[in-house]
Amino acid sequence: MAWYVLRRVLQMIPVFFGATFLVYFLVFSMPGDPIAALGGNKPLSPAVQDRLRAEYNLDEPFIVQYLLYLQGLAQGDFGTTFAGRPVIDDIRRAFPVTARLALVAIVFEAVFGIIAGVISGLRKGTWIDSTLLVTSILVIAVPTFVIGFVAQFVFGVKLGLVTINVGANVTWMNLLLPGMVLGAVSFAYVLRLTRTQITETMTADHVRTATAKGLSRPRVITVHILRNSLIPVVTFLGVDLGQLMGGAIVTEGIFNIPGLGFNLFDAIQRGESTKMVSMVTLLVIIFIISNLLIDLLYALLDPRIRYDARK
Amino acid sequence: MTHASETGGATTRRGQTHFVAPVDETPLQAVDALNTDVKPRSLWSQAWRDLRRNPMFIISAVLIAVVVAVAALPQLFSDLDPYAPGACQLSNSYGDPSPGHPFGFDQQGCDVYSRVIYGARPSVIVGVVTTLGVFLLGGLIGALAGWFGGWIDAILSRVTDVFFAIPLILAAIVVGQLFALNALTLAMILVLFGWTAIARIARGSVMSVMNSEFITASKALGASSSQNLFRHVVPNAVAPVIVTAMVNLGMYIVLEATLSFLGVGLPESTISWGADISNAQTGLYTRPELLFYPSGALAITILSFIMLGDAVRDALDPKTKKR
Q1: Do B285 and A153 touch (CB under 8 A)?
Q2: Chain A, chain B: beta-carbon pairs less than 8 Å apart
Q3: pLDDT tens digit string along A11-40?
Q4: B117-320, which class in CATH?
Q5: Which residues of A touch B293 (CB under 8 A)?
Q6: What is the 3-state secondary structure (H, E, C) of chain A?
Q7: How many Å lie between the alpha carbon of A10 and the closest alpha carbon of chain B?
Q8: Can you tell me the ipTM of this complex?
Q9: What does the domain layout of chain B look like in residue ranges?
């Protein structure tokens, strides 16, 4: 196990450098000159522009810029926006908001997705199974932003139950609907995945044995079917957590939530390269770490999987 | 073996006659004989037979045929050309449905029905081209990693991880700023950053096929490695890759709509469902039905591709096959 953890952590290193380099390269090859744009209609004098370029290392060759950026990152410095504010300030404000939103989404999709999937799988072929399946396909087929608008319209405007414009009031209550919208598509995937797994496990030999030796049905379901069925579901949820943070761009835009996605989209439109790079880097780090944790969780959930370096 | 030695061995006791079992049983060869006149059905012909009987496949195939026809020849389905100059008259703004304009008019006074019809093309192009692209690129990289193994696999897998770690929507937004986008360039960008999931599945699939006994047998019979690759590994490993690519097709269409919705996708001059949904948002509280038409068309398209993928998976997977 220790060998496995070490190997996985070592594998993370090239992925981290590769991904950050790629992001850095893409962002800094974007068109437009952010320094020249700073002055707006009144161009800054060439001397000021040169000084600013030197300050942001923009006069260095690309690879040096990247290394300097990494050096800063290693010291916890996420860089400075072209407006002169440290990016870490923005991250500190935006990150908890998105983390909260993603948490609501994950809890929603995990709880409701698994419950619906288990019901559907155990009652395969009944009307409740068909209803849940059709619902899940519909949720997948309708894009998140349409679901968001409809939810806003129905629950916010018609029924007046929720705030449609969250703004600065980032309370759990206000994040409830946006979180559910964000997790809607994954809810459908969790439902379908759980259903497939349950129906496959139900016909397994060990379940028949458990029933034959006289265990009660609740015990067979919880201990013998669920535990074995949920392993791929947990993997899916882990990968999804990393993707939800990035996918929050749309949901945060619709509900006006000042999180990472909102900030990131704003940065992309303003050409704030440093802010863009830092936020995407943060998302990449979260994604890599959550993938690692899921791989390790695998070993705990499934006793058949043993990570041994020696073969 | 043991049975024969017990009965036919030196177990005869004194005074007993040696018993010899009659040998007029059916010869084993006859039991095991195969009817070689019947042509064996391949996985694909079996799957095709299953598919033709699956109502879900027929419905989705018909829907897809309609959507593709609309995308290819929109002028057959709408008399109005929304791209024509003067197609939108502000005097018609939020006009009610009238003869020739079954869905009414949007805020800019454009005929909604013809825009829904003409909006099919970019969605279908992005969906189909991206799916083909990720299938080829991801399939190739994954198959190479699985086939060669060793350090080639290690390098290709790390490259896959790198691209996998960058969320597709973010990559598409950032790279989209570098080019003048049209449906084809957008599809290329999605291929460039979206091939990783397919590559992982292709790699796993190739590896599991290579571990199977019939490959060992074919090697033992002296098949060359290229014969093995093209005759045995590729046809057997390709099914899960095709299925995943098909199910993902809907996701690419959603992504195109999302980018257009965010205003960073196709240029405004291109009519697309995502952009129209975005425009309908401004009048959502007074004219919610304007949101319904483009998103309904989008949902039906995605739905039919998901259903098609599901049906193909069921037909190709012997485990879920109904008996």
Answers
A1: yes
A2: 114
A3: 888 888 888 888 888 887 766 666 666 666
A4: mainly alpha
A5: none
A6: CHHHHHHHHHHHHHHHHHHHHHHHHHHHCCCCCHHHHHCCCCCCCHHHHHHHHHHCCCCCCHHHHHHHHHHHHHCCCCCECCCCCEHHHHHHHHHHHHHHHHHHHHHHHHHHHHHHHHHHHHCCCCHHHHHHHHHHHHHHHCCHHHHHHHHHHHHHHHCCCCCCCCCCCCCHHHHHHHHHHHHHHHHHHHHHHHHHHHHHHHCCHHHHHHHHCCCCHHHHHHHHHHHHHHHHHHHHHHHHHHHHHHHHHHHHHHHCCCCHHHHHHHHHHHCCHHHHHHHHHHHHHHHHHHHHHHHHHHHHHCCCCCCCCCC
A7: 11
A8: 0.80
A9: 117-320
